[in-house]
Write a structure and sequence with these properties.
Chains A, B: Pfam families: HTH_6, SIS. The structure is a homodimer of 282-residue chains. Chain A contains 13 helices and five strands. By secondary structure, the first copy, chain A, is of the alpha/beta class. Chain A has a five-stranded parallel sheet. In chain A, strand 3, helix 10 and strand 4 form a beta-alpha-beta unit. In chain A, helix 6 packs across helix 12. The longest helix of chain A is centred in the C-terminal third of the chain and has 22 residues. Chain A is elongated and about 75 Å long. At the A-B interface, helix 5, helix 6, helix 7, helix 8 and helix 12 of A face helix 5, helix 6, helix 7, helix 8 and helix 12 of B. The structure holds a DNA duplex (30 and 30 nucleotides).
Chain lengths: 282, 282
DNA sequence: AAATGTATGAAACTAAATTTCATGATGATC
DNA sequence: GATCATCATGAAATTTAGTTTCATACATTT
């Protein structure tokens, strides 16, 4: 905790009731303050606008604006983030919700290192590097990640598929070679279609890379390589939002790593496609 | 020099006279800015208040207030070079790359408040709330966001479409009603198909909500409602990765806000579908 | 030379921060 | 136990700051 927040904490006992409420609120969610107005803040902390201004003066800062600036400065230095997903219960305005989503998403991404195993990730890069075909399969909320991977790896020259239709995919499995890969994406690791497809593919000799939550699900147990997303606190309102961010980030990292190793080989084609995109804009 | 100041320096040539004066002044004395008002700054830099605000928008930040906050943040941590995309040149291990991606993605999400306008966001929530049909359209890297929105808003009971096929979509446009919405997703705001579809839809009376980078692109100018993503430093290797995260986060926030306002109405259907998903897992 | 477009600052407008002020609570003094 | 002083507090008024609009000027094109 930086000097400003520490100062707030230390001065809590000497503050008046309303100011104490303010102080506690600030300490709880300091990163939300800079984008708030006195009115919002007073409502959130259960005080009045005047008390907000008075609070700033009490902790030795002349105005609310300066307080915000100081806070940003402080928060910029210590990059600590909170991880509390409980806040959607209150009656929030659209912009509050937006701020919370921002927060939930960044927290989730930052939590990935706690679940993603380094060696598994390296194995995944290596395997994809030597693959020819990639099949991305995810249903429901995980379809987004599948589409994204499909797009990215196509850009790198892979023969990719990402299709919603289970039977369609099934019929392509027997043609997979030893080096080919199924990217099985499922948060729960229990989705039946994803499991069936993976098993079938393994029987035919392909590798299954799973992007799934870190727990002992069937997909987790059966996959050849496990890229685990952190289990984030769950609330039906938030649903799969943060999970999907973590799936995507893992795919991003995989993509860049493969890009890097393929490196010079794909650059000409990559730029060619890119220039064509720009040309077609006009 | 941090990413923000670098960005200002780099964009100097493309700025107008008044804006250039502003930029030079800011570069000369960046640490003075946060405690200045638009009026002071306009006098010091020999321009007008309006030009100050315009300058902020031109460098991709939605308001003068946000600009100040960003500047403070940057000045506070000029030691760390966080948005440095050159890492892909050195010999990074896969896991390093993963860590950088994590960082790039979280930074991008955290930058959204600098570009997303509060009021526009509220307008978007309101408009979607009163819509019946939603068409999500994005090509290339923006297709991911379109798919994601498609999935999310379908869960809320909207008649949604998200399709890659331009002609297919075209044929559905004439059936749009006054309250219907096109969500036009394009980072550059110049994608031809997206523009054409939006124009056609507007002619037919539907509203266009654009999710696009904050700059003076055609889509930005023509959209009815603009949800702007921040301009993040660009490197062809990273490509659209962080932009797509910001698009998705904006859609997440929109979804949750609409969910919240629809609230109780959709809960039964929502849970019904959800339980069925769980049942089908076994 | 007319027409179109772009840039600009003055002024109107809107939003946010700050101050003032009335009220009610607490506690000290007679 | 009544009276007065003090303090904390939030509602409302005021002031200040930020943003948008609009008319004008200037440049560019046809």
């Amino acid at each position: 905790m930086g000097p400003l927040l520490t100062r707030i904490k230390d001065s809590l006992p000497s503050l008046s009731e309303a100011e104490k409420k303010m102080g506690l609120y600030v300490l709880k969610q300091p990163e939300l303050i800079p984008n708030m107005t006195t009115k919002e803040l007073s409502q959130k902390s259960g005080t009045s606008e005047s008390s907000v201004v008075r609070f700033c003066k009490s902790i030795g800062i002349g105005s609310f604006k300066s307080f915000k600036l100081e806070l940003v400065k402080e928060l910029a230095m210590n990059e600590e983030k909170l991880t509390d997903f409980n806040f959607l219960q209150d009656k929030s305005e659209p912009y509050d919700i937006f701020q919370k989503v921002t927060h939930v998403n960044t927290s989730a991404i930052e939590a990935i290192p706690t679940s993603l195993d380094r060696k598994e990730f390296q194995k995944a890069v290596h395997t994809v590097n030597h693959a020819e075909r990639l099949i991305f399969y995810g249903v429901g909320g995980s379809a987004t990640a599948a589409v994204d991977g499909y797009y990215k790896f196509t850009k790198l020259g892979y023969a990719c598929t990402a299709h919603q239709d289970f039977h369609f995919l099934l019929s392509s499995i027997p043609y997979l070679k030893k080096n080919d890969v199924i990217m099985a994406i499922s948060m729960s690791g229990k989705t039946k279609d994803v499991l069936e497809l993976s098993r079938f593919a393994q029987k035919e000799g392909a590798s299954v890379i799973a992007i799934t939550n870190l727990d002992k699900s069937p997909l987790y147990k059966e996959a050849d390589i496990r890229l685990c997303t952190p289990i984030v606190e769950h609330d039906y309102r938030i649903g799969s939002i943060p999970s999907r961010m973590t799936q995507l980030t893992i795919i991003d990292a995989l993509y860049l790593s493969v890009f890097k190793t393929k490196g010079e080989d794909v650059l000409p084609q990559y730029h060619e496609a890119r220039n064509e995109v720009i040309r077609l804009r006009r």
